[in-house]
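*** Fold description ***
***
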Amino acid sequence: MPGLTISIEQFEQVVATDDLVVCRFVENHSVGGVRRVTAVLAANTHQWLTVHETSVR
């Protein structure tokens, strides 16, 4: 979306293993509200494997 900015706060690493990293954070969107995000990443490449977003406002 043109003009959209996203800031991240409340970042938390939930779990880290040799293979995976699970983190949580809050995204504040300049347009469209606030979302709580949980992401699972490959530990060695930081490639996002899955992400879940929930609107909180």
Notes: The beta strands are 6-16, 20-29, 33-42, 48-55. The chain has a mean pLDDT of 95. The chain has no helices and four strands. Residues 19 and 45 are 10 Å apart (CA to CA).
